[in-house]
Design goal:
Elements: H1 11-26, H2 33-39, H3 44-51, H4 54-69, H5 71-79, H6 84-101, H7 107-114, H8 121-143, H9 149-169, H10 179-202
Helix pairs in contact: 1-4, 4-8, 5-6, 6-8, 6-9, 6-10, 8-9, 9-10
Amino acid sequence: MRGICTDRVRPRQRILDTARNLFRKYGIKGIGVEAIAEAADTNKMTLYRHFGSKDELIAECLREAANRACDIWKDLEAQHPDDALAQVRGWVRFGSACVLAEDRGCDLANAAVELPDGDHPAKRVIQEFKVAQRNRLAELCRRADLQNPDLVSDTLSLLLEGARVNRQSVGLDGPCAQFVAAAEAVIAASQRRTDTVAADAAR
């Protein structure tokens, strides 16, 4: 596996990039530090000097993946400035693109399944990321004047998580293909309730 990365990348980042790719391909438990070090054109001593342990390396890989995923909020704001509802719908379409593109699923969700130990340092990374994403979506739903924004956010989040898992188990022709339609139905139902409340208040 030697030679996946080039020497122009600093050792720490080279190890991170290599580990993330190998974890995605073989699973967290399916690859060891020796194989990671070899594929990154380095050695275990260097790996441990930068990360301390395999557990810390896993946590840092997931932290980096989480940071990259957070860029979606900036992109949504740039694409739909001052239009929260359009941003919610943009989130749905971004989620759909992820479902279509992913051949191994969400790195953080996969890690959560592989790491049942609640004390693993990666578990905190996963939990904090998932909670933060859910809260940001709920706030977006609130600004979009959707009825029961917390429930809408939770429903949309569960639909996306389920679609990503279904993509892996059944394929693109399975229920995951209905993710956008299901999400739009949730949004539309919440809008109807909001419109009904407003109409009743005006009477």
